[in-house]
Amino acid sequence: MRIAIIGTGGVGAHFGSCLIRGGEEVHLVTTPRHVEAIRGGGVVDLTDEGEARAHPASVTSDPGDIGPVDAVVVAVKLYQFEDATGRIGPLIGPGTVALTLQNGVTAPGMLGRRIGADHVLPGTANIVAWLEGPGRVRQTGGRPAVAIAARPLGSPRPDPRDRQAGGADPRAQALADAFARGGVSARLARDIDRALWEKFALICTMGGVNALAHATTGEVRSFPPTRRLMEQSLAEVRAVATARGVALTDEDCARVLAQLDAVQAGSTTSMQRDLEQGRPSEFDALNGALVALADESGVDVPLQRVICAVLGLHTHRGHV
Ligand SMILES: NC(=O)C1=CN([C@@H]2O[C@H](COP(=O)(O)OP(=O)(O)OC[C@H]3O[C@@H](n4cnc5c(N)ncnc54)[C@H](OP(=O)(O)O)[C@@H]3O)[C@@H](O)[C@H]2O)C=CC1
Ligand SMILES: CC(C)(CO)C(=O)C(=O)O
Asked: What is the ipTM of this complex?
């Protein structure tokens, strides 16, 4: 498959390396500092298994150098999204699909407004990865996973109770197969909205409450007062999801809580790490976006407001 990846940070560089090693024709679109490093030595991918080097078919800052591809994977931060996708045009042909892997629920709609909903496959990434330097990525915590919408954003939503309705789009299947060949656990999601909101609940809670408490997930979950904040955060996200037509069930919420209980005690999130290291962070596009959606829907989310106020102050000050 001919695949372009926009952004070579934690997510883009690791998945890029996997897709290259799985045999796909991978083109990377990234910032000049990564272009230079990757042209010189490939993508250096550091995992618990050791170091691997992967050489893409091309690496550039200009999508015009690549032209139309079968699939685009958008792997930039939410605050870089509009800028990075503003130049996506040359990569999109009539049959191209573009996968969004951002946390939160806003990226698919933003991309759909730009290139047309029929081209957009919303997705989620379950991975712990970060940049160690230009072209150099560290991934840890076991085999990463992606969930890819079985059908593009513009498709009518099949009734989730009807197992026969609305088969998978062959392009979504081909992309999932490519990830799987690269060693990534890949599944097609018939109800991607539910998957996005579940991940949103996890990230607003783990990232938001951890950063508010300046603590790891292990500390937050084992101290009863902060554990109650975790539970309150999940309940707030659930209320907003329900108001917006995505009725997360008790089982969905129990699954998210079980994930929070299962991650390694020292775990943090990418947003939290960015905040703690004084880098721009996605809190405004995650907990902040949740508050905006809650306001639109008339839902009260007092804890999310506190998280946003405190993290806003940290951002203003430049560090946690
Ligand atoms: N990291 C993780 O473990 C996880 C992250 N996510 C989500 O995935 C998304 C990506 O996160 P992550 O990989 O951590 O982010 P990173 O900050 O590590 O990577 C983003 C990359 O995009 C590059 N970039 C910035 N602007 C552009 C542009 N205009 N065109 C092309 N490339 C550009 C950046 O370059 P430069 O380095 O020069 O700034 C950087 O290399 C986020 O929405 C995050 O929430 C989801 C699950 C886990
Ligand atoms: C919580 C986690 C690690 C799950 O993939 C994540 O999404 C992030 O750090 O941004």
From this structure: 0.98
Q: Is the pLDDT of residue 166 over 70?
A: no
Domain with CATH 3.40.50.720 in the chain: 2-190
Ligand 1 centroid–CA 8 distance in Å is: 7
Tokens of 309: 């106020």
**Which fold does the domain 2-190 belong to in CATH?**
Rossmann fold (3.40.50)
Which atom of ligand 1 lies closest to the CA of 271?
A: 45
Are residues 79 and 183 in contact, defined by beta-carbon separation less than 8 angstroms?
no
Exposure letters 186-217 (e unless 16+ CB within 10 A, then b): bebbbebbbbbbbbbbbbbbbbbbbbbbebbb
* CATH 1.10.1040.10 for the 194-317 domain, yes or no: yes
Q: Does residue 19 carry a pLDDT above 70? A: yes
Q: Whose CA is nearest to atom 3 of ligand 2?
A: 128
With 0.90 as the threshold, say if the pTM is over it. Answer: yes
User: What average pLDDT does range 295-312 have in this prediction?
Assistant: 97
Assess contact for 12 and 30: CB atoms under 8 A: yes
Ligand nearest to the CA of residue 199, numbered in listed order: 2
Cβ of residue 8 lying under 6 Å from some atom of ligand 1: yes
**Ligand 2 neighbours (beta carbon < 6 A):** 103, 126-128, 203, 206, 269-270
Asked if residue 274 has its Cβ within 6 Å of ligand 1, the reply is no
Cβ atoms of 242 and 191 closer than 8 Å: no
**pLDDT band with cut points at 50, 70 and 90 for residue 112:** very high
Ligand 2 nearest-atom number relative to CA 202 = 1
Residue 5, token pair as written in the block? 């990846």
What's the CA gap between 243 and 74, in Å, rounded?
A: 28
Q: Where in the chain is the domain with CATH 1.10.1040.10?
A: 194-317
